[in-house]
Amino acid sequence: QVQLVETGGGVVQTGGSLRLSCAASGRTVSSLNMGWFRRAPGKERELVSAIRRTDSSTYYADSVKGRFTIARDNAKNTMYLQMNSLKPEDTAVYYCAARPSDFTPQYDYWGQGTQVTVSS
């Protein structure tokens, strides 16, 4: 069983930065396809960024391209989301998620979420 624990959320002013961490246990992050999702109040959950286990290729939603960077540290078994130039519309609960399969889009494991609030 994979367990994911997010940390690093908080309150930041517009233009500021935060780094979210997702510590994994039960499996190595290098063996998992992983992603960051977010859910803003009144909106559906959206995929913000993802990293593929096989070649570490990455995906970013258009809304965060050029501002967010996903990475993983295999030695620490942790995935990160570096968020720069934050905007009020980035305010949401951020979740990390993981899926072992390369062939199904559904994520099997989820963290508890961490709140990010960007004040204007």
Task: Please sum up the structure shown.
This protein has 120 residues and is mainly beta. It is 0% helix and 51% strand.
Descriptive report:
Helix content is 0%, strand content 51%. With 120 residues, it is mainly beta. Strand 4 (33-39) and strand 5 form a beta hairpin. The protein is globular and about 40 Å long. The model has no long low-confidence stretch (mean pLDDT 96).
Question: What descriptors fit this protein?
Answer:
single chain, 120 residues, mainly beta, seven-stranded mixed sheet, four-stranded antiparallel sheet, 11 strands, 0% helix, 51% strand
Reconstruct the topology from this structure:
Blueprint lengths: L2 E5 L2 E4 L4 E8 L7 E7 L6 E6 L6 E3 L7 E6 L4 E6 L8 E8 L9 E2 L3 E6 L1
Parallel strand pairs: 2-11
Antiparallel strand pairs: 1-3, 3-8, 4-5, 4-9, 5-6, 7-8, 9-10, 9-11
Tell how many strands the DSSP assignment holds: 11
Largest sheet, described in full? 7 strands, mixed
Low-confidence stretches: none
Q: Radius of gyration, rounded?
A: 13 Å
Mean pLDDT: 96
N-to-C SSE string, H for helix and E for strand: EEEEEEEEEEE
Termini gap? 40 Å
User: How helical, in percent, are the residues?
Assistant: under 10%
Question: Which structural class should the secondary elements be placed in?
Answer: mainly beta
* Shape call: globular
By DSSP (H or I, 4+ residues per run), the number of helices equals 0
